[in-house]
Write a structure and sequence with these properties.
By secondary structure, this protein is mainly α. It contains four helices and no strands. The chain starts with 9 loop residues before the first helix and ends in a 20-residue tail after the last helix.
């Protein structure tokens, strides 16, 4: 999924957030939902953690919460002289 979790129907957004939070809790990771919504660095860290968990449902929903600005660049940064 390449959409942000908070771009659609508010009820769907809340359900996705609750799913993510409880799936993470089931893997032993607590999620601060306020930070998940407002801090792109925190959201990216949560997504990275989720993708390393053995839970396939968690791996499937995790990318929804990653902000596009956190996606790796397709071109490496250039070094200055």
């Amino acid at each position: 999924m390449n959409v942000s979790a908070w771009d659609g129907d508010p009820q769907d957004d809340i359900l996705a957030e609750v799913d993510f939070k409880w799936l993470m809790a089931g893997q032993g990771h607590w999620v601060d939902t306020t930070m998940l919504r407002t801090d792109t660095g925190y959201a990216h860290q949560c997504v990275e953690t989720a993708l390393q968990c053995p839970c396939t449902a968690l791996q499937a929903i995790a990318p929804v919460f990653d902000h596009p600005a956190n996606a790796p660049s397709s071109t490496p940064p250039q070094r200055g002289n």
